Amino acid sequence: MDLEELYRREQLKSSGLGKVIMFLSRSDEETASNRKLAKDLVDKWSRPIFNKSTRFEDARKHLDDDDRVLLYRKPPVKRITDKTAMLDFKDTDLDEFKRERKSGELSSSKQHASKPEAAPLDFTKIDPDEIIARAKQVEHDKCRAQIRKKLQQLKAPKKKLLQASKLSAEGRDMFKCF
Asked: Which superkingdom, per the lineage (predicted)?
């Protein structure tokens, strides 16, 4: 079908054939080959009917300046430099999260993925000797805890089975008696 002529495009719009072919391209009852053929027809006919260009450059030219600003705008990143303000900020966030969790609002709403943001690069220098000392202390505490646990197990009174064993007439479990 030649869609270059204006009256052919108008005839195709008014016939409703495009709607039927679109339905067939999405229908599960159609065979795969028919769906593919219908989809190809929709792709071939839709741009001339709606006067849309097939070139991406033309689509970019039609964007308004406002649309471009919205597409390329980044939200401002708020950075908190004061440590006390940062702690207060984190505490309030957790409190709000707990309140929402209790009320059930968060569980009923859908959670979406969020865009990762760069972490603020506010690092402080820590003495390496202090880190090593902390690691040794933690290791020493773990070792002491394991030793205490083992000593408590050894000190605990060992309970013996005071229940009499039941002997069977066939002689099973006889070795328990002697």
From this structure: Eukaryota
